[in-house]
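F.,

This is the one I mentioned.
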């Protein structure tokens, strides 16, 4: 009987030990206030997690990505140029987005809402994004920085936030990789992303590739 009681007590303590970190989740996943001016400039991608089909495969193949966010003549409209190197090849996309009340929005041809979460890094941006296309909804969680690399404690805090959001384990890129130049002619990002979202048959293949890369690629 004593052994049974001891096992119950031990299991209770282990349960408390696992749930303790979640007590801080409310703070870690609460959106913060970000101004238009805070958003402007260049942001280097450090890592992230997403359930969008193909995102895990891309995360393993992508060696660098940066954003350049600029203001427009309209106070609530921002322009974003996204440049990435995937499997050694650089490409660039451009987006026009609405930014109001610390929230980035795209309403057509799909719906995207992006808010920003707390971080212990003064020059970082932690992004929580939800994208809806038809009946499908996808979530992404990303870390950007003004610098090409961040400290290990920033990465650990970001991974803890991902756990709180019940996201797949973030894929962090090698920040020593060379980034792409800024003289690449960009394509329309909304059209490119929407084409991928509408290719429903391709989602199945993309999910298989995601599982393959997560299993065999470190």
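My design for it:
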């Amino acid at each position: 009987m004593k052994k049974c009681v001891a096992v119950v007590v031990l299991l209770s303590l282990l349960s408390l030990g696992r749930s303790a970190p979640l007590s801080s989740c409310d703070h870690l996943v609460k959106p913060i206030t970000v101004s238009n001016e805070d958003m402007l400039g260049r942001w280097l991608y450090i890592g992230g997690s997403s359930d969008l089909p193909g995102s895990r495969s891309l995360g393993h193949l992508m060696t660098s990505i940066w954003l350049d966010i600029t203001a427009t003549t309209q106070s609530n409209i921002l322009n974003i140029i996204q440049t990435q190197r995937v499997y050694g090849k650089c490409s660039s996309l451009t987006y026009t987005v609405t930014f109001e009340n610390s929230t980035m929005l795209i309403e057509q041809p799909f719906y995207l809402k992006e808010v920003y979460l707390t971080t212990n890094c003064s020059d970082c941006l932690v992004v929580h994004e939800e994208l809806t296309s038809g009946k499908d909804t996808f979530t992404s969680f990303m870390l950007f920085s003004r610098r090409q690399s961040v400290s290990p404690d920033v990465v650990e805090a970001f991974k803890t936030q991902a756990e709180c959001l019940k996201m797949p384990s973030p894929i962090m890129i090698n920040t020593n990789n060379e980034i792409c130049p800024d003289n690449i002619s960009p394509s329309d990002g909304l059209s490119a992303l929407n084409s991928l979202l509408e290719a429903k048959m391709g989602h199945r293949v993309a999910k298989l590739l995601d599982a393959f890369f997560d299993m065999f690629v470190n």
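The radius of gyration is 20 Å.

Talk soon.
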